[in-house]
Amino acid sequence: MRSSLALAALLALAAPAAAEPPAAFRPAGPAHAWSFPRDHFARPGYRNEWWYFTGTLAAADGHRFGFQVTFFKVGLLPARPPLASAWAADGAVMVHVAVTDLTTGRHHFTETLWRAAPLLAGLGAAPGPQVAWAQAPPGTPGRWTLDLDGETWRLSVRDDRLGLALALAATPARPLVLQGPNGYSRKSAQDGYASEYYSQTRLAVEGTLALGGAGLPVKGTAWMDREVGSSQLAPGQVGWDWFALRLSDGRDLMLYLLRRADGAVDWRSAALVARDGAATALPPGSWSVRSTGRWKSPESGAEYPSGWRIEVTGEPSLALDVVPEVPAAENRSRLVKGLFYWEGPVRVLGAGGQPAGEGYVELTGYGPGSRPPL
User: Fold this and answer.
1) What residue ranges do the domains of the chain occupy?
2) What is the pTM assigned to this prediction?
3) 100, 345 in Cβ contact below 8 A?
4) Per-residue 3-state assignment (H helix, E strand, C coil) for 135-195
5) pLDDT on residue 243
6) Under CATH, what is the fold of the domain 7-363?
């Protein structure tokens, strides 16, 4: 944890989420009047927001990478405290970055976390271009930034300790998708546990990537999820399995399962996005996910599913095998005690093991004490 980060930020991030939605923060609601580009930017009053980019990149020599860049807004107070100081802050900005080298099989993770105050971190407003920024980790000059240039997202991060740097431009290749009715994404049968959620399921990406050497020109495809809310995990839920899959036939499949401590699924949701960007919600009884393997982290001790069989019945019908590109893709925070999760690129296989797509999987809440602070 940064010495200049407020102690309250540490406590808010490391402690379990409250049993009830925080009354002072604004709850996610089903009647939000979406407006873009305004809703690409931070929305005051909510406890949590994130801009979540995952994708795959390739260099001209065939070298392939998976990448994750996530900017989190972590609300500490529902409004800026009434103090006569520019340093009064109501939240923090946390950024997680991971690069998975698909040639060597190595997974690299870095992070930064600062309270939203002058010189440390901040959130922009429409018309931008600045969406979010945070100071780079100690020992690396400059900022980590997320900007919006017209419809193009621009991401820039660098960690000199790891020799890692990304400078990427990501442009939507199809319309954005509201996840759930009017973008209201329930996370429980109980009222009050939800987010306002949209996805950009196909982004054309190009830029440079450095990993222990000179920057390589890269191109690829990414997925961006944006969620806004104040309470997402209901009491009894410990985490989720989340899949974002780009299929070779041009369709995209998003699904997630929220789990209880005994491993039983408490809530599930899925959407299939057509080539023209139209999304269809899949009835909960029409699809299933079954893990086909396990991987245990030697560092955290958490045991994660590793490999899955996804089946969708009815029309359309799908039978897909999802295989991690690199089993050891756990992100472990050095700044927030007990914060670790699995996030990695996957291959999608169809009938006869034929290539059928690619994507990313995220697994949270595995291992003792790892319930996400949401």
Assistant:
1) 7-363
2) 0.92
3) yes
4) ECCCCCCCEEEEEEECCEEEEEEEECCCCEEEEEEEEECCCCEECCHHHEEECCCCCCCEE
5) 98
6) AttH-like fold (2.40.370)
